[in-house]
Amino acid sequence: MCKHYSEMNLLVLWMLVAVSVAEQAAVRNLMGEPDYRQVRLHWEADGNALPKNGFTVRFCELQTWGAQRCRNQSVKENAIEQNSVDKDDEFKAFSADIKGLRMATTYSFEVKVVKEEGKGREDRAEGDDANQNIIVIPTKGFSAKATQCLPEASEISVSTGPYFGGRIAVEAADGERCAVDGEPGSSKDTYTLRINHAECGSQVNETTVATFVLVQENLPILTHSTRRFLVLCSYQPETLTVRAGISLPTNNHSSHHHGRVQAQISPYEGEDNFVTRRSRTGRLLQKPEALVKEKTPEDEDPEDEYKSNLIPIFVITMLAIAGVIGIVAIALKIAGKRLIDELDDVSIASDLSTSSYSTVSEIEVISEKQSENSGGKM
């Protein structure tokens, strides 16, 4: 009796372990794709051990105080409308669209195997089950970006999702030109709002324009999905962008022409824009092909070559003339010095000649006096 009882316990224990292992291994690779008001889930299951009653997806809104508004959705292999099954040899891939969700809300998704007995357990509080196939996915919310920033007006593009029935407006602005109403019956998911700074009351200074934009899902009230955006644009007034092109001469003399520069000047339109933080979008200027083309010897102009050689020749000529003038000045200086020396020699010779003449005359006078004296005595 005891032996039979122990065998029954072992059998029950084995079955519980097998069921637990099957539950843990039934769902794998759970992932999701968020949208504005729905999430598409994907997972895989062992093709040889599929549950008879399919799967159930339990999803809840995650708030600060815990999980709220939990709901269940069944997923079966023979589902037709929203669910599909991809056939595979070893594993089968399942997908389920969970719709009716709220925008800009974080959800937890748990995929479990539906048990044959105790279906009431599906309504238990979260955490009582041992299945750990849980992922957390936030749904999409409103987003905005500035597409054009000018000193007088700005344009912003707001992504709202399809079938948007709310309103996009500049905060505290009364004019109809400062708001755009949604179209609930349209699948359009993006709206463009053009803001006139003077009419809509934007804050404008020398280089920055600041505008607050309010996006509401429901017009009468402000819900949790309502978003308030600060559109901040920076621009550079009175700045010009210059694009220049140059034509280089060729070696074809029949079509020879001098280099010509063409410039086109266009006002700079500030494309720098950002929402809630600064970001700049770089602009790429196209370089003219002539500016980056390498110049070859064949493209050189003989006239340009002559002009380039003219300056060195002129400098050499001026240096030669200066050298000749210097030599002439030195020669004149030497000749003048020689002339002065020769004049000094002539003066000395004249003095000597005068002195000699005086001496001879005196001797002759003395000799004549002596002869006279001697004649008188006789």
List keywords for this structure.
378 residues, alpha+beta, Immunoglobulin-like, disordered N terminus, transmembrane helix, Ig-like_fold
C-alpha termini separation: 217 Å
| Percentage of β-strand residues | 25-35%
Q: Element order, helices and strands?
A: HEEEEEEEEEEEEEHEEEEEEHH
Measured on Cα atoms, how large is the radius of gyration? Answer: 55 Å
Helix content: 25-40%
Uncertain residue ranges: 1-5, 16-25, 79-87, 125-129, 253-295, 352-361
Q: Given the structure, what is the number of helices?
A: 4
Oligomer: single chain
Tally of discrete structural domains: 2
Main sheet properties: 6 strands, antiparallel
Instruction: Provide the structure class.
Output: alpha+beta
What is the strand tally? 19
Q: Which outline best applies?
A: elongated
Please state the average pLDDT score. Answer: 72
Description:
With 378 residues, the chain is an alpha+beta fold. It folds into two domains: 2-138, Immunoglobulins (Immunoglobulin-like); 142-304, no CATH class. It has helices at residues 2-26, 197-200, 289-292, 302-377; strands at residues 28-34, 39-46, 55-63, 66-75, 84-86, 91-98, 106-113, 134-138, 143-149, 153-159, 167-170, 179-181, 190-196, 203-204, 208-216, 227-234, 240-247, 260-267, 273-275. Strands 11, 12, 14, 15, 16 and 19 form a six-stranded antiparallel beta sheet that branches. A four-stranded antiparallel beta sheet has the order 1-2-6-5, with no helix packed on it. Strands 4-3-7-8 form a four-stranded antiparallel beta sheet, with no helix packed on it. 17% of the residues are buried. Residues 1-5, 16-25, 79-87, 125-129, 253-295 and 352-361 have low confidence and may be disordered.
